[in-house]
Predict the structure.
Amino acid sequence: MSSIHTNYNEPTIPLVNKSIDDDTNKRRKNITGKVIVVGSANQDLTCYAPTIPLLGETILGTSFQSCCGGVGANQAIAAAYLGSSQLEVSVVCRLGKDGFGDDTLKTFDEVGVTYNKAVIQTPKYHTGVAPIIVNSQTGDNMIIVLPGANRALTPADVRSELLDYHHHTDRKKSNVVIVTQLEIRLETALEAMKVGKEMGALTILNPSPAQEKTPTTIKEETTEKVEYDDAEFYRNVDILIPNEMELVSLVSSIKGGTTVEDESMGLAEDKEVEVEMAKTLLRLGVKKAVIVTLGARGVMVVSRKQDNTKTDTHNNDDNKVEYEVTMLQADPSLPHHSQPVEDTIGAGDCFCGSLAAYLSAGLELTDAATKACGVASMSVRKKGAQSSYPRKEDLPESLKIDFGGDATTSDIGNESGLLARKQVITFVTGNKKKLEEVQRLLVSSASTNRPGGNSMELPFHITNAKIDLPELQGDPVEIAIEKCKLAAEKVNGPVFTEDTCLCFNALNGMPGPYIKWFLDSCGHDGLNAMLNGFDDKTAYAQTIIAFTSGPGHEVHTFDGRTSGKIVKAKGPLDFGWDPIFEPARDDGGCDKTYAEMEKDEKNLISHRSRSFAKFLPFLIGKLL
């Protein structure tokens, strides 16, 4: 796993979910629990045999089964099978446009799992497949996963779809749980957890299957190097659910940590070692708990004590952190308990999906985990993965999901989640420093417009997304409008773009929006030379912000300008064209170029700050 350098209370901004039908949106009015699974969907091709063959050995099997599977799809189906009218289960995944993909969609429709109909199938890749060999005597299995279309699910896809669901979920009434796994690209799984934390949702990572740190790419994709940092994953995870082998893999792979050899672990026996490994992951940043699935032994829950959930994860002094260790199993009095084990395929997925559903109903963690153990225990009494998961009518009363309590989002989610309280607006940029500067400009504008100049908390949250947009030609305002429309289609929600121009009056506004390319080609001296032979050296700097509430909505533009003149470069030369633009005295200038001014001095008169000063009142009027 890894640091991914990749380049949403808001009902007043109209949004349209084009991918989900009206009946679904009407039903959401009664939803109090929401589970969103971001992950894989495969077709399981399962062979049953008396034993698992050795290397080079050929044996005769006893039966074959082809059915829908994949870690993500399994977890979504397990949650949906618990069957409450107050629980909505959605899936974010990718399928091929083939028979296996069609079968998966049919299954989702039958059990009521919602999905984005417009994008879930891709013609470029086959649906993922998983050949499985099962020992029919013991239920043990071996699996090979061919990801196929699962690798086509990108971080941008996940952010767009999760924000779409967020816009149509009443966070005052609904507990939202987001679950992901590692049968999809690592950077995509990380984005799911990051957006989940922004939404104020409870985030669950099931690190299955264990992966190498090197990210896997698919053809036609960028070969840009992506580096991973374990800590960034864990900081965005509330609950981590590995099995014993995955636990060892995670701890052994921690960069700079102690490598633990498999043979010393005592995987199925040494509880103390397993507890210490789980604590290691909590120290690295997991917010609430590590739940280790132990097969027939149930699960082990290692959690921070309630008053330690905000402990500094970079402080490795265990004396300052208290942990709780709880061993849980399915209730032995459950009616299925005496039945033989048929097949363990998908039992871990059943546990994860059921746990998410129970947590979305507001259950306390250990209670939810105990019930999830019971559901998973029922699943191993039948063959297959999804086909073995119990439905609502199969469950004893003690395992039926109940939304009758008064659970709130603060019971299960991240209390600091920005999206739980504020409208989120996406700024199109892959540059985090540019995002930070925009946030400062908006806060500065809010303070300037507030009586007494006191600071004001903005009623919205600005996030960023790196979106590749075409280079357009034409009038600067027309370019800004078209780019904003294209970005809205990508984000499927509120979005704004920013375009900056430097316009020479003698050249009728050129180079205008093409200033970046002129600067790259000509440099500061070349830009000055463009005005040789002209007496008029005046110019204006311009920023055009374009905003829309979403696809199909009107685009609003906010034009900020500062008048000045073009001069020989003065001041630091590493600020773009700032060294050659000197604001006019009658427009706030002081015989200094932008490059010579202090940041606060420049922000008072800059074209950007003037554009954002117009943008802010519009946004506040929209949201309040």
User: Anything to note?
Assistant: The CA atoms of residues 519 and 527 lie 7 Å apart. Residues 422-623 form a domain with the Maf protein fold (CATH 3.90.950.10).
